[in-house]
Specification:
The protein has 4 helices and 5 strands; from the N terminus they run βαβαββααβ. The chain is an alpha/beta fold. It has one domain: Rossmann fold, CATH 3.40.50. The chain has a 5-stranded parallel beta sheet with strand order 3-2-1-4-5, with helices on both faces. β1, α1 and β2 form a beta-alpha-beta unit.
Length: about 140
């Protein structure tokens, strides 16, 4: 039995390329009791609901994981939190440095603090410090 079997799992921002694959993997190949899916906006929530359905194991919440207190009010007991959010593209970070910091640093800190406060037993973070190769024109010095 894997570490996700029979668990209540929260996945932050499950609408990026890694998050989408992660949610599909967990729902198809593991037996979670509950998967709380937390995108930051309604459109992403709607699209994710269309993708995975709305069964008894899926719960959808629109929450900004970067805001302290938002994860603390989750209406269920969690066994595992998977923090799947990060701004990974160098060009996006270059043009949006404040959002990059809020998402990658503050967001990760907030998830850890909320998880510790809720006594979550397993917390996993997908490495937000990794970045893809930028488009050459995006980071040319001025």
């Amino acid at each position: 039995m894997g570490i996700l079997e029979g668990s209540s799992i929260l996945i932050t921002e499950p609408t990026g390329s890694v998050g989408k694959a992660l949610v599909s993997e967990v729902l198809r190949n593991h037996s979670p009791v509950l998967v709380a899916i937390h995108p930051r906006d309604q459109l992403k929530q709607y699209e994710k609901r269309q993708d995975v359905g709305d069964g008894p194991r899926e719960r959808f919440f629109v929450r900004d994981f970067r805001a302290r207190g938002h994860l603390r009010v989750a209406p269920h007991r969690l066994d595992c939190v998977i923090h799947a959010t990060a701004i990974k593209r160098v060009d996006t970070a270059h043009y949006n440095p404040m959002e990059h910091g809020k998402t990658n640093a503050l967001g990760s800190e907030t998830v850890v603090i909320a998880s510790v406060g809720a006594r979550v037993q397993k917390v996993m973070a997908l490495r937000p410090d990794k970045a893809s190769v930028p488009a050459p024109s995006a980071v040319q010095p001025s």
